[in-house]
Amino acid sequence: MIHQTAIVDRDAHVAEDASIGPYSIIEAGVVIGSGTEVGPHVVIKGPTTIGKDNRIFQFASIGEQPQDLKYAGEETRLEIGDRNSIREYVTLNRGTVDDESVTRIGSDNLFMTSCHVAHDCVIGDHVILANAVALAGHVHVDDHAILGGYSTVHQFTRIGAHSFSGFATAIDRDILPFFTVAGNRARAVGINKEGLKRRGFSGDAIKALQKAFKLLVKSPVSHKDAMEKVAELAQDFSDVKQLLDFIEASERGWIR
After folding, report:
1. Strand order in 102-105's β-sheet?
2. CATH topology of domain 196-249
């Protein structure tokens, strides 16, 4: 399953049923799990752990050292879960000792062509990064978030679960769960209604989130009063409670 032109270091661990394509380079400290397919001309550097049934397309760069001038060769790592699709020219960098020394990627994600995930990012499950999305260091992307093509994300920003960004959105603060944002700089434009429908959210839950959005973004009342009304709504809807908890934990502030 390893092409004769591939170079695999003797200190790399490749599962027997994984495959390595022509001219790919797998360096020491790399672990590749069962069923994972590595295409041609891929470079994977360690320490990097890749789980099961991933597909990595040609010219991807996986586990390269961080693009951080403070990085001085410390041993840091990249961890990738299962069933991810990593398309052409995607770059996934290892972590730094300034954080937890790891860049961590979950499962069932799609990284479209030319995406960049910088050092110390944490990506959840079922996330989609469309073409040429760029995440700076220390960005957290929660489950089921979708970032539209050419969107850029400032370092230390958090992208909430089930959120959505439009094409070429410049994201410099946190995106609340369930929100849709767009523009340069990003502005909140509504709830990710269609995405929530596709994922089986009830009509009542979606209406409650829409009401919370209007209170937080469009209401003429003070922010304090709006938060109190959202807190009342959260007593009956766990999704609104998730929204409220995210706001209270936000360190960079969130996009309105």
Report:
1. 13-14, 30-32, 48-50, 77-80, 102-105, 122-123, 140-141, 158-159
2. Udp N-acetylglucosamine O-acyltransferase; Domain 2 (1.20.1180)
